[in-house]
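User: quick one, fold this
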Amino acid sequence: MTSALMLFYTVIAVFLYSGQSIMEYPKCQERNLKENLHEMCSLIPLWNPFHEVTNTVWWSVCACQLLFCSIIFMSTVSVIFLIYNVTLMLISHVNYFKELIINTFQQDDPRVKTEKIKYCIQYHKHIINLGHELSYLVNITVGDITLSSGICIGCIANQSMNSSSIKDAIYSTSWYLCDWRTMKDVRFILARSQIPIGLAAPFGFLGYPLYMMIIRRSYSYATLLNQTT
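Assistant:
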């Protein structure tokens, strides 16, 4: 039931966001004319390489973006809640196994009790195998999503942001030949550029140094826990 509600929410959320973007189309067009921009004004902000966009092209781009957003959003939620459902199923197996154990030791006949204990052992092995398979699948799916998002979305994007240095672009110009008022404003920009703009995480700014630090600390904690247990 929870998974069905979340899947329904993903569909509604995509269409609501799309409807809001379409309603803001006039404001986007007004901003393009005012600031001389070439934004597509579609569902997702997109730079427009053309000066004029026909209605056919605009609706085609919006339809493609709506399709891609639905596929990405719904598939991600489906993967996460598939694991959630399998975990609930495994919990149901464990609860049934506990009831089975209680029922087994309530038997008065020793022969029946022995047979039920053998069945409980086999059922316990089955639950353990299900747990190992679930852990393996989670490691492949969710672990891979976490790793890729941490590297691509976080680290690479932040490194690209850091490489787009404002102060280097200013230094490459002849700003020092301007009048004193302009030079004063440029100095403020240079001073502010010393403070980096990055994607923040709870431990600091996302980047390869932070990523390697998290991996080293995680490995150290895991080694310590293995030695203590």
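User: anything notable?
Assistant: Residues 106 and 113 are 8 Å apart (CA to CA).
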